[in-house]
Structures are given as structure tokens and as C-alpha cells.
Amino acid sequence: MNPLSESDFSISESIKSYPTFASMGLKDKLLKGIYAYGFEKPSLIQQKTIKQIIHGRDVIAQAQSGTGKTATFSIGTLQNILPEIRQIQVLILAPTRELAVQIHHVISSLSDYLSVRCVVCCGGRNNTIQMARELDKGVHVVVGTPGRVLELLRQGNIRLGKLRSLVLDEADEMLNRGLRDQLEEIYRRLPSRISSDNKKSLDCQIVIVSATMPAEHLELFQNFTSNPVRVLVPKDELTLAGLQQFYIDVGSEEWKCEALNDLFSSVCVSQTVVFVNTRRKVEWLASQLAREGFTVAAAHGDLDQTQRESVMKQFRSGECRILISSDMWARGIDVQTVGLVVNFDLPMNNISEYLHRIGRSARFGRTGLAVSFIANAEERKQLLEICNYYQIAIPPAPARLDKMLVTNNSVQESKTVNRLSKSNANNSHPTKDHLHQTVGQSKRKKKKHKKKNKKRVNIVN
Questions:
Q1: Buried b (16+ CB within 10 A) or exposed e, 305-339
Q2: How many Å apart are CA 369 and CA 70, to the nearest integer?
Q3: What is d(CA 70, CA 106) in angstroms, rounded to the nearest whole number?
Q4: How far apart are the C-alpha atoms of 79 and 25, rounded to whole Å?
Q5: CB atoms within 10 A of CB 160
Q6: Among 118, 174, 394, 461, who pairs with 179 as Cys (CB 3.0-4.6 Å)?
């Protein structure tokens, strides 16, 4: 896929681009933090949007995963913070505790050389009394989930008198999770002023960012903002530059584990995220892979906060190279070394989750690979719907997947793919006719599996 260009963005007005971080007029200590974090050149959305946030404009920004949306609002809001005022100047809301913790990590890293204090407030992380104590010490940035932030607002622990910016990250997901009432109450508590003509207006800016922005959500968020700058990517552009996408028709659910083993023996990557659709299957698949000798971590919504942080620490450090995850974590996994994403199950309830899943790879200009398994008519239909929705072609996996994965500076060395279906290589994209053809191919492939004494595995749902 080609990198996004200027023409890929729908922008509400003429906006100047800033091709380097140095050209944005940022504080020296903030620049130092940006470079120390590993950023060298701003992404296109950063070139367009950071300066608008610094100018105090309301912003509605949509771009795909991995393009640096978090850094966009983090850099813009950090530039405007007055360190000498130890009161909340930036409030960032996220739909999940995992994403809130990740944003807190980015803010803390970028502000490493600034005298800026950031705390995270979300359910399951410490208790309310401890959070209140942290807030009483004086903080500049609060990152949290709407429910916990609203609770602390009602109790008077969070005070917004000096607030300069409210950021809604993954705004569409907050609405999908039924958090609209909480968002509206927080919105009503924002500082406001009365103009000379007796009209009430907010005294802080609103920044709304997301990877997807359905029309019904966009209308609501435009009501939250005043004359916003809108930087939107049409949904048919929501695919990742540097990420190659393929599918493997395994023929039957019970052959998915064997296909996953084949894939791992064929492609050499530093770290992999495997997505499944249920908590039970997360634990089951992690157990299956552990028996095969893989280092595996399991992530799902039933883990408590201590367990979640332990899992992510293991994965970030490389102690575990494979993370099995549910969609609960799809937007909170930000590990730059992820080279492969596997949809063991396709997302069946929400097509937009496909984008968030595969966006765990090919982050910040890196390259990566996304492979989806299909095993039945329902998954074949869903794959076609994903292709139609994003107007993309997802081809079948070629016979030499090891040639597909190229890192920034070198080609990954990997084993030859001996066991993936070579017949897939002759097809270019998933059409209905092709998907029907691959059923027969998969049946023939299963006979070969039997001859080699390979195991069928009963899948846990």
C-alpha cells in the first residue's frame, strides 16, 4: 500500500503543514522529549494538526491506527501547559483503562524534560482515596475513563477551573460503549464564560480524535465543538501504509491451530498479536500454544489491573513474544515491535474492529503483516464485507510469506513456507467465486494433513 498523501485527507479549511517538529516552534525541552521517544519526522496528521491544537482551535481529527494520533494531541497540549500553575490544564478521556494507561505512558515520556505532572484515573487502578491524594498534590494532566473521571468530578477531587484542553480519544468507541451520558455530563462541567452579547461559551478547547468517525457520531461531536478544524480520512482510505494483509482459508475451525503453528514456523517476527473473539478462547489458545513451547501472554477484559499491567510488561520487554487478546485490548496495545497480527477469528460484530486490530502492526512508519483465518461460510462472508466496507482487496496468502515481511532497514530472515496452500498464490483478491473455490482446496489440504498425522484440535468458543 502506498503511504497516505495530502490528497487522502479531507480538511475543512486551508491548513499549513509543518514538515518537521522543529518548524512548529515547540519548547526545546518538549522537542528533546519527542526525539528521545524516537520520533524523527511528524506524520501527515501531526504536520496538519499539532499547530492547530497549539493555537487553541477545536479539532476533530480522524486517521488510521499507527499514524501518531496520540502523539498529535499529546504534543499539542503539552506545548500549551504552564508548569508553574499546578492545576489540571489538560483532561484526556479514553474508553478503556488500557488505552488510558498507554496515553499516560506517552504523555509522561514526551514530557520527561518538562516540569509537568500527569496522573491516570480509571477503574481498577488504585482506589478513589489514593487517586484523590495524587490529585491533591497538584497535577497538570489527567488521563482517565469517563466513569472514574466523572466520579472524581462529583466528589470535587477533579477541579477544572484552569482547564485549557479536553481531549476525547477513540471518541467513537466511547459512544459505542454507551458512555454518551457520562461525556455530556463532563462536558456540562467544563469552564465557560459569558460573552458581551450574553451568550455562554466554553473557556477551553475540545480535541476529538479517532480512527473511525461514523456520520452519526460526527454530528454529535460537531455539537460539542465550536468552529472546529476537521481533518478526516474517508473510510476507504483507512488502511495502513506498510502493512500487508492476507487471508488463509483453513477449511474448518478445527484446523486453525495447525495453521497458526505453520504460520509461526514460516515467518520470523519479533512480536505477534493474535486476536480471538471470546475470553475463554483467549485462555484456551494461550494454553495450546504454551504446550507447543511458545512464550505466550493472555489478555482479556476479566483480568484485574495488576494482571493487565504484568501482561503488558512481559510483552513490551519481549519476555513473551506472542500476545493472545480479545477486542477489549485492540485499541490499547501500542508496542512498536509488533510485526505480525493474526485474526484467529475475524471480528464478527463490528467491522471497524478489523482496522483497530491490524493497526497493532506497522506503527509509526514501520512495516508489518496481518493474516486472517477463515474457516466457514460466515467468516468468508465477513471477509467480503470487510473488503467492501474499506474498498480494499485482501489477497490469499502467497506460498512465500517469508518474502513479504520487510522491516525498516532489513529483510526479516525466516524459514521457507512449506505448508501453506500454494494454490492461494494464483488468486488476487477474495471474490465470492474464489472463496467458494478455496473450500475444495481446503478439503484436499485436510487429506494431506491426515497423511502427515497432523492433529485436528477441537476449538473452544
A1: eeebeebbebbbeeebbbbbbbbbbbbbbbbeebb
A2: 22
A3: 8
A4: 9
A5: 19
A6: 174
Residue with cell 476449538: 459
Give the pLDDT mean for 172-178.
88
Q: In which residue are the cell numbers 477551553 written?
A: 204
Lowest-confidence range among 61-70, 80-89, 150-159, 294-303? 61-70
Q: What domains are there in the chain, each with its CATH number?
A: 6-237 (3.40.50.300), 243-451 (3.40.50.300)
Measured distance CA(336)–CA(66) in Å, rounded = 9
Given pLDDT bands bounded at 50, 70 and 90, which one contains residue 217? Answer: confident
pLDDT single digits (tens) 246-294: 999 998 898 999 999 888 887 776 789 999 988 899 999 999 999 988 9
Rg (CA), the chain: 23
Across-strand partners of 90? 141, 165
Q: How many CB atoms lie within 10 A of CB 203?
A: 14
Taking Cα atoms as reference points, which of 111, 110, 114 lies closest to residue 37?
Answer: 110
> Across residues 330-352, what is the average pLDDT?
78
- The residues near 212 (Cβ < 8 Å, ≥ 6 apart) are 62, 172, 235, 238, 352, 355
Rounded to an integer, what distance in angstroms lies between the CA atom of residue 53 and that of residue 73?
7
CB 335 within 8 A of CB 364: no
Strand pairing partners for 166? 91, 206
- Residue 287 CB partners (closer than 8 Å, separation 6+): none
pLDDT band at 58 (very low <50, low <70, confident <90, very high): very high
Report the candidate in 367, 433, 374, 439 with the shortest Cα–Cα distance to residue 404: 367
Q: According to DSSP H, which parts of 321-376 are helical?
A: 352-358
The mean pLDDT of the chain is: 79
